[in-house]
Amino acid sequence: MEKLAKILVVVLILLVAAVPLLGQQITAQPETIELRARMPENGGWSQEFIYGLVNVPIKLRMTSDDVVHSFALAQSSLPSVEIFPGKFSETELVFDQPGEYTFYCTRWCGANHWRMRGTIVIEGPASSDQPTSVPPLFLQLGLDLDAPHFARVIPPNRPESARASERTNALPDGLTDGGTVWSKSPEALWKDLKADEDLDDQSVWDMVAWGLNQQGSSGWMGQGRELYTQNCLACHGESGRGDGVMVRDLPPMNHDKMGSEATRPPDFSDPAVLLGASPALLEGKIIRGGMGTGMPYWGNIFTSEQIRSLVLYLYSFQMELEERP
């Protein structure tokens, strides 16, 4: 009996010592959450909110109840995950900072596709290297995003940045100043340059195109085109005319009735529409969305670099721009 008692004591001691280790293993296992995707008219995501902890994996097991969808995490480099009816797709997420993270669908599934968004709420201690946010330029400048901004000066021919790059040594220093170029419309920048430069109108417009071209990082054209194709083309149209398949039955935009009904997007193939808008203004519209027009907001979906690439891509509807090497 005494020997048996000693054995039991040893076993109990080992169990007590193993409990913390066992607990760590259990908590380290990712929590599996089933997430079902449905068209917005049928309910959208089965869970609008998902909750988790800092540095604790979240495993998502996803399927579709109707058509093909896609799961993507906003402001992230993680690839999107295709979700098919009758099949399960899995992905695992880990967050190193507390906060709210947006997930969304990247597959156009109907007119209300953009409503397929949800939030992952992460709780826990914040690390000391958490980045500080800087207000976007349109807020710093106090821009009225809904005011008309039509250009009155139109280039004789399509501006080309390559033509201006041939005379780089003679280009004004202000064209490389991001704050100057980003805060002024192409028309306003043209007027400033025209006042200082003894050049014909077309040459100055080429300089404007060159200045815009300097605002993108390497690979911006491809990134902007991809973002536009995935998220904007269905409404704005392949050539930016505002004639996408999702909005063809909507009335054209009317500034006098702004906010009263959803409308078709502006026609970016019209130089008066696009060349009167500053990059900061277009950036603001993408971040905030088109109030009263039906355009969704993208500020919590795209990174600042992605938005910048998308803005520059919009100008390619009116200018021949080329990527920087």
Question: Would you spell out the secondary-structure blueprint of this structure?
Answer:
Blueprint: H1 2-28, E1 31-37, E2 49-53, E3 58-64, E4 69-73, E5 81-83, E6 89-93, E7 99-105, E8 117-123, H2 137-141, H3 161-165, H4 178-183, H5 186-196, H6 201-213, H7 220-231, H8 233-236, H9 271-274, H10 279-288, H11 304-315
Describe this structure as you would to a colleague.
- There is one protein chain.
- The protein has 325 residues and is of the alpha/beta class.
- It folds into two domains: 31-123, Cupredoxins -  blue copper proteins (Immunoglobulin-like, Sandwich); 137-315, no CATH class.
- 34% of the residues lie in helices and 14% in strands.
- Strands 2-8-7-4-5 form a five-stranded mixed β-sheet, with no helix packed on it.
- A hairpin with a 7-residue loop joins strand 4 and strand 5 (81-83).
- Helix 5 (186-196) packs across helix 6 (201-213).
- The protein is globular and about 105 Å long.
- Mean pLDDT is 85; it is low at 18-28.
Spell out the key features of this protein.
single chain, 325 residues, alpha/beta, Immunoglobulin-like, 2 domains, 3-stranded mixed β-sheet, 8 strands, 34% helix
Order of helices and strands: HEEEEEEEEHHHHHHHHHH
Structural class: alpha/beta
Largest sheet: 5 strands, mixed
Dominant shape? globular
User: Number of helical segments?
Assistant: 11
DSSP strand tally:
8
Termini separation comes to: 83 Å
**DSSP helix fraction:** 25-40%
Tell me the β content.
5-15%
The radius of gyration is 26 Å
Order of strands, widest sheet? 2-8-7-4-5
What are the low-pLDDT stretches, counting only 5+ consecutive residues below 50? 18-28
> How many discrete domains?
2
Question: What is the mean pLDDT?
Answer: 85
